[in-house]
Design goal:
- The protein is α+β, with helices and mostly antiparallel strands.
- The protein has a 6-stranded antiparallel sheet. A 3-stranded antiparallel sheet has the order 7-8-9. It has a two-stranded antiparallel ribbon with strand order 10-11.
């Protein structure tokens, strides 16, 4: 375990891996507060003109407090949020209830729309950069703004981000906010299905699938979903960025889908508030009920 970072941040624990490297929970020894340090991409750290990410204030965005440097490494300093990373939740629970998955995606789309309206692209959206507070309904916060390298094209896409990278990014083409919509579509699919859209373990195979495929990327769902959800995900992950909706459009379409969720969940399933989340369990005619969802246990 490391000691001090940048002469003032005492490492409490390693909390995950981002696109650029390790993320730490640290204590600011000068102020006595707990914050998060996310390693920034090498090419960003090497650029002396790189400034701190644009300040974004939004209910579903983790605030960025500034930058810290140690040698040739640069870190984004974030406010500490006591929440569970979405990748941990999915590892434990697989698929989420449709209502929760859609609410989380709606919150993330709202956060992205806020950022995009201010000219900010996230560029590092994966389940690992989404934090979930165990409330009813669940409260999502998007972290890791400012840690991704959006300038270096294909060479800058690390393995941890590859399964969520839009084709134009892999090709080294000009990118815009629609790379975030592509990634959000894949995250929404993963929340609904409990598995990644791209199951390829081989990096070369995955790149070929994204770059050389001719047909559309069509999500195949194994559960009954509200009308419009499957079509929305399919549009979000279109190969052509021009055919994807904006984050604001995604938010609006999820708003239209959410009221239909109870009618889908009813009948064969009943709704129960358990373990802090609204979880759908099989009715009494089913063989067994799902266990409660408890974050951080």
């Amino acid at each position: 375990m490391r000691g001090l970072i940048a002469g003032k941040y005492e490492v409490v624990e390693e909390i995950g891996q981002g696109a650029a490297g390790t993320t730490y929970k640290v204590r600011d020894k000068r102020r006595g507060s707990i914050v998060t340090l996310r390693l920034r991409h090498d090419q960003l750290a090497d650029d002396p003109e790189q400034r701190a990410p644009v300040e974004l204030r939004h209910d579903h965005i983790v605030p960025v407090l500034g930058l810290a440097r140690e040698g040739n490494q640069q870190y984004v300093v974030e406010e500490w949020v006591d929440a569970e990373p979405l990748d941990h939740v999915l590892r434990e629970r697989r698929a989420l209830p449709p209502a929760d998955a859609l609410r989380i995606a709606r919150q993330l789309a709202d956060a992205l729309a806020h950022a995009h309206e201010r000219g900010v692209i996230h560029g590092d959206l994966t389940p690992a950069s989404v934090l979930i507070r165990s409330t009813v309904p669940p409260h999502a916060m998007l972290a890791a703004f400012g840690s991704a390298d959006l300038e270096a094209g294909r060479a800058a896409v690390p393995p941890t981000l590859l399964a969520y990278a839009a084709p134009e990014r892999l090709m080294g083409e000009d990118i815009d906010a629609r790379i975030d919509v592509f990634a959000l579509g894949l995250v929404l699919f993963e929340m609904l299905e409990g598995r990644r859209f791209f199951s390829c373990a081989d990096e070369h195979e995955l790149r070929n699938l994204l770059l050389d495929g001719s047909g559309p990327l069509l999500p195949q769902f194994t559960r009954i979903l509200p009308p419009g959800v499957s079509a929305l995900v399919a549009r979000m992950i279109r190969r052509s960025p021009a055919k994807r909706p904006s984050a604001a459009q995604v938010r609006s379409e999820i708003d239209a889908c959410l009221p239909r969720v109870p009618s889908i969940a009813g009948g064969a399933h009943e709704c129960a508030d358990r373990g802090g989340w609204k979880w759908f369990r099989p009715s009494l005619s089913s063989s067994r009920a799902l266990p409660p969802l408890r974050l951080g246990s």
